[in-house]
């Protein structure tokens, strides 16, 4: 397992190493894992400060990712609670219909989405991009399984004390599934941060570009300068590493909780 781990990490290690090198040293063979000549300060200063658009791309990505994550977690948790704990006629049928949409490839609905967003005026806007990823069938299904694990007697006790659905949801149900909420939030953050397809199709203005489009623009503007490209790539994954390091405890706790209740 240790050997396999090193094999899987080797491209990442090479990327970090290349971001510290002179351009002529990047493709040398055999590979210099530790640069003989360090050029990190110049590479990172060129990417971050000489090209102001990179900061714009970074800010756009943070904005879209954070708002999408917050909205998606809120909407998915509400829907999951409704399907798990609120009894209404046709609940199972509606849930199956919602779940069936997960089987539809996203690429098959891109054209209708594109036409609809142009018609309602959400094309080429961050708000439209946020809406696209704010409703997740996977998130609803995942969180529903955790809400089902809450004892119905707890919900009934809250109703007997006069709590409505929203009060029961926010003060009782939500704290009990906090590890699952954290797990889905981390997954949603990573998926949205790495998303390339939706920004490529639904954004046209360069000042609105996210980081994934920005790195492609950066490569076009500077040519195939691998040291700068790797510097941009390393900068792009730093937030993902921070989120994972902070949230890995909740992810493991959520997986363990799901395993016990399953």
Structure description:
Helices cover 76% and strands 0% of the residues. With 262 residues, it is an all-alpha fold. It has one domain (56-261): MetI-like (MetI-like fold), CATH 1.10.3720. The longest helix is centred in the last third of the chain and has 36 residues, at 226-261. It is globular. The relative contact order is 0.14. The model has no long low-confidence stretch (mean pLDDT 81).
Layout of secondary structure:
Blueprint: H1 2-19, H2 23-26, H3 40-50, H4 52-85, H5 91-100, H6 110-120, H7 126-132, H8 137-148, H9 152-160, H10 165-176, H11 178-194, H12 197-202, H13 211-222, H14 226-261
Helix pairs in contact: 1-14, 3-14, 4-7, 4-8, 4-11, 4-13, 9-10, 11-14, 13-14
| Secondary-structure class | mainly alpha
Average pLDDT level: 81
Rounded to the nearest angstrom, the distance between the terminal CA atoms is: 28 Å
* CATH topology-level name: MetI-like fold
Q: What global shape is seen?
A: globular
CATH class: Mainly Alpha
**Number of separate structural domains:** 1
Number of strands: 0
What is the string of SSEs from the N terminus onward?
HHHHHHHHHHHHHH
- Total helices: the number is 14
**Sheet with most strands:** none
What CATH architecture would you give?
Answer: Orthogonal Bundle
Question: What are the segments in which pLDDT stays under 50 over at least 5 consecutive residues?
Answer: none
Instruction: Please state roughly what percent of the residues sit in beta strands, choosing from under 5%, 5-15%, 15-25%, 25-35%, 35-45% or over 45%.
Output: under 5%
Superfamily (CATH H level) name: MetI-like
Task: Give the proportion of residues in helices.
Answer: over 70%
Rg from alpha-carbon coordinates:
22 Å
Protein name: Sugar ABC transporter ATP-binding protein
Main location: membrane
Transmembrane segments: 64-84, 93-115, 127-147, 168-191, 224-246
Family: Belongs to the binding-protein-dependent transport system permease family.
């Amino acid at each position: 397992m240790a050997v396999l781990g090193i094999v899987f990490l080797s491209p990442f290690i090479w990327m970090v190493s290349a971001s510290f090198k002179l351009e002529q040293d990047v493709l040398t063979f055999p590979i210099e894992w530790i640069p003989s000549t360090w050029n990190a300060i110049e590479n990172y200063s060129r990417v971050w400060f000489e090209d102001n658009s990179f900061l714009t791309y970074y800010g756009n990505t943070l904005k879209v990712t954070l708002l999408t994550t917050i909205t998606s977690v809120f909407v998915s948790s509400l829907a999951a609670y409704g399907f798990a704990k609120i009894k209404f006629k046709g609940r199972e049928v509606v849930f199956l219909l919602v779940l069936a949409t997960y089987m539809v490839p996203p690429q098959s609905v891109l054209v209708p989405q594109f036409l609809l967003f142009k018609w309602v005026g959400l094309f080429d806007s961050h708000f439209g991009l946020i809406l696209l990823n704010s409703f997740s069938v996977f998130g609803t299904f995942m969180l529903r399984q955790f809400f089902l694990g809450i004892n119905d007697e707890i919900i009934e006790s809250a109703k007997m004390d006069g709590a409505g659905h929203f009060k029961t949801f926010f003060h009782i149900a939500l704290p009990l599934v906090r590890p699952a909420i954290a797990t889905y939030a981390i997954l949603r953050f990573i998926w949205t941060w790495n998303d390339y397809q939706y920004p490529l199709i639904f954004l046209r203005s360069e000042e609105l570009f996210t980081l994934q489009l920005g790195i492609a623009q950066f490569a076009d503007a500077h040519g195939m300068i691998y040291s700068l490209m790797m510097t941009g790539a390393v900068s792009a994954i730093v937030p993902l590493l921070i989120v994972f390091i902070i949230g890995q405890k909740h992810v493991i706790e959520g997986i363990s909780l799901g395993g016990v209740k399953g």
